[in-house]
Every structure is written in C-alpha cells, then in structure tokens.
Amino acid sequence: MRSDEWLNAKLEEVWQVLMPDVEKLNKVSVVFKGNWKTKFGHIKKMKDGSTQIVVNGLFRNEVVPDYIILTTIAHELIHYMHGFHSPYPKRFRYPHQGGIVDKELKARGFGVLLKLEKDWVKNSWVEVISSLKGNAYASYTQDSSRRLFCF
Predict the structure, then answer these.
(1) Is the model's pTM score more than 0.85?
(2) Contact status, residue 75 vs residue 101, Cβ threshold 8 Å
(3) At what angle do helices 4-18 and 66-81 cross, to 10 degrees?
C-alpha cells in the first residue's frame, strides 16, 4: 500500500518535471482521501493559506498504476498554476475552460500519460473499483455519453 509520504515525494517529482518554472507561493501538500468511483482528485485552499491536493484513497492500492496518480497530481498542479486554490491570480473563469488543463499537460509533455490514463479508465477502472470496493460496484457500467471522472 502507498503512503502519504510516498505521495508527497511524487508531488515533488511531478513539480520538478512538469512545472519547474512555477514558483511555490505557499505550502502545497498531497494526501490520499475518500474512496470515489467517479473522482480521481481535487485541489483546495486550506484555512491556513496552504494548498492541499487530495488523491482518491483507492489509489493507495498498488493495483492502480503509478501513471494514474502522477497524471492526477499533474492535473491538480495545472489548476494551482492557473490560480485555482492557490495564491496565483486566476487565469480563467472556469478551471476546465476550453480543455485548458489537458492542453497544458500536453504542452508540458504529459500527452503520453493522458493517453495511458484514458485507456486505463476505459479498460480497467470499473474492474478495479469493483474489486477494491466490493460487490456493490460489480454492476456499475460506464455510460460513454457522459464524462465519468472529475479531477
């Protein structure tokens, strides 16, 4: 099982690779929390002014590939960079306006990981949540007419 310490080390690695040009203006941490079937993570500003990235607690299990966690962290760091839940000024009215997160990730070299993530979600996620959360999700199926996941 992965720990929050492991997760914070991955945050530092992704930050160095993805956004070495972006200064940390406050304390940024990442934790595993929740057990969601339709959400990989989120970012929030804490009362003390720090920023916390939350990654789906199901991702502690090593059956979830590292690249899913890395892509989730990178996605949330793009929000940070764009001024969502960070000291940076907001660059956009909405956090996913015009597909800006994926565009930024691709521009920063994460295109391959985005493709791997999409394939994994399509081919493995339902089976993984069924095994990790039990039979309650065994009948859960994906509806291709809507987006299932929030980041």
Answers:
(1) yes
(2) yes
(3) 60
Residue ranges in the chain modelled with pLDDT below 50: 135-151
pLDDT of residue 142: 43
Burial class (CB in 10 A: 0-12, 13-18, 19+), 59: buried
CB 76 within 8 A of CB 56: no
| Residue 148, helix vs strand vs coil | coil
Q: How far apart are CA 138 and CA 119, in angstroms?
A: 20
Domain map (residue ranges) of the chain: 4-137
Beta-carbon neighbour count of residue 117 at 10 Å? 23
The H or E element spanning position 33 is strand 28-33
Buried residues in 131-149 as b, exposed as e (16+ CB within 10 A): ebeeeeeeeeeeeeeeeeb
Q: How many helices (H) and strands (E) does the chain have?
A: 5, 3
Pairing of strands 41-45, 51-56: antiparallel
The per-residue b/e assignment along 27-44, b for 16 or more CB within 10 angstroms, e otherwise, is: ebebebeeebbebbbbbe
